[in-house]
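ok so I'm stuck.
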Amino acid sequence: MVIEAVSKVYEGKSMKTQSVLKNFLWRFAERCGAQLVTFIVSIVLARILAPEDYGQIALITVFTTIMQVFVDSGLGTALIQKKDADDLDFSSVFYFNFVVCLVLYVIMFMAAPVIANFYNDSTLTPIIRVISLTIVISGVKGIQQSYVSRNMLFKRFFYATLGGTIFSAFLGIALAYAGFGVWAIVAQQLSNTAIDTLILWLTVKWRPKKMFSWDRLKGLLSFGWKMLASALLDTGYGNIRSLIIGKMYSSADLAYYNQGDKFPYVIANNINTSIDSVLLPTMAGVQDDSSRVKAMTRRAIKTSTYIMAPLMMGLAFCAEPIVRLILTDKWLPCVPFLRIFCITYMFYPIHTANLNAIKAMGRSDLFLKLEIAKKIVGMTLLLSTMWFGVMAMAYSLLVSSVTSQLINSWPNRKLLNYRYWDQLKDILPSIAIAIFMGCCVNLVDLLHLSNAATLLIQIPMGAVIYIGASAALHLESYEYLMGMIRPVLKKIARK
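replied:
not stuck anymore, here's the structure
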């Protein structure tokens, strides 16, 4: 989505538009492929397993996700951002990270009974100790991933991620059918990380050298610790709701809340991750030219929103027949959460693009300050609403997300001369058309058809309305995407 802006940046340099486009497509294909398989597997497992099984995993994920933040320690981003990172930098970070991961696993192993006691569920202890092995495995994978991102070798991500996802899918489904319950999910997650890491290790040529430098590590940590602190704040805040729901309410409530998040997250994560992977190293290469960074940021926001808005709106308006058809009626309580998350994720391009610009320009100090400000607001809203039920907590997340947009965009008023109001003006046409499309497809419910028939009408109808309205109004993002797609289609047709 940032190809046009990126091409201007690298004009006359070794990285041409075609190369950037190819890497973006590989990354997008990897994310879409992995998420599609994961999505299908989650549907199969959700139909086989009880909501309580998913709730147990969600309880544990609160802690393992926070531990995963330490796996990177902000050093992966520091390696990508540093202009002249070499083998000494990568090797030093590799050994440091691996030792940190071993220590983290020991902590989780010892803390497992305490966590289980916190939730009054002794069965969680062995589950925590096994699933926490992903932390150690990630310690091996993390720097390989940074090397791949820095050198734009996203084809390697494709093979590694798809291999791990497909293998774990078969294993998880087989164990679920065999009656292993929650252990089917544990095996799926652990094997996914292990196979992903193995394939990446075999396909990426870089290996840690017998060298280590505290000086290099300290230099990277001067940037990385702020990113680590920011990530900890973000991850801790992102999981605190699950912790509170699991403690104050029930594992089933937590399962419905998380299931509502799953569908829109798959879409948002595919788009954001694909763009971010290409955008950050590209921006970092021109971090001293604010006009070029602004051009890429604006393109990312406009085009990402153009793609994200109809998908989120369509999913929100079609939520009930989708859940009934795919997950069965036992998961209907997740529908209200799903709709709230759709609205929340629709505005994520503003979050991610602004933050990428700040990271690429080396302003980790600003990044940390923004995270602190956002979490103060978010925690205030959460603590005010957690006594009124899970739904109130979900709405507080939506309000917090809107506030965070303003906070994330604030520094770029001066850094890039790109105000929040300007960003809203860039995305409002796409959102307006998406809302119109959603209202139109919602009318199909009045026909009282079966779930499958309703969706068969709503999905193509929504696509025709959105694309047709974009073309009729000559929407800039539509014209931009079509300008990219037409040459590709012509090339395919010639072949």
